TrEMBL record:
Pfam families: EF-hand_7 (PF13499)
Residues of the signal peptide: none
This protein's name: EF-hand domain-containing protein
Organism the protein comes from: Micromonas pusilla
Segments forming domain EF-hand: 30-65, 70-98, 159-194
SUPFAM superfamilies with a match to the protein in the record: EF-hand (SSF47473)
Lineage per the UniProt record: Eukaryota, Viridiplantae, Chlorophyta, Mamiellophyceae, Mamiellales
Amino acid sequence: QRCPRHARRVSPTTDMSGALSKISKKYNKKEIFALKAVFDEADADGSGEIDSSELRRALSKSSLSAAAVDMFKALDKDGSKRIGFDEYLKAYYKFASPAEIKELMLWVYPPKEEEVVEQRKLSDAQKAEIKSIFVLYDANNNGLLEKKELFEALTASGYDDDEIEEMFEEYDQDGSHAIDFDEFCAMLESSYLDS
């Protein structure tokens, strides 16, 4: 797994540093997992959804039991007669955007490893952009970025010397003391796929 500081997007014209998600600053992971625990407790049949009888049962010991039907209708935004955890989150975080809800759902339901591998591929356009960056900084046109060339490319994008050194060591897979195009693609892949 790559260090989050490697998730900056390098561009020949723009410094794209700071591509880290702001969602973890806005929402509390412990709170999300606590909400999930409450949701799971109400989900008596373990289906991953709450139906109206499960909600009534969950609220039976509280002063809200009389309002269970109205609450259920308010929570069941898609009219499926079942409340998914996403609808539960939407009700709790009324001002959360759909993208934020989706990311919060990923905290609780992370994709399986094979799904991540399949989803995380660079498009042809992204590869072409990375190639143009690579060619731009390959000053001696030998098809490799030597350490000096890589330092020039990444310093311009806001990386410090220690970060660049660490990245160089991590991505120089063949030990050639230079980064070839495939290694450069691997280096930038997470910043392209996470942006």
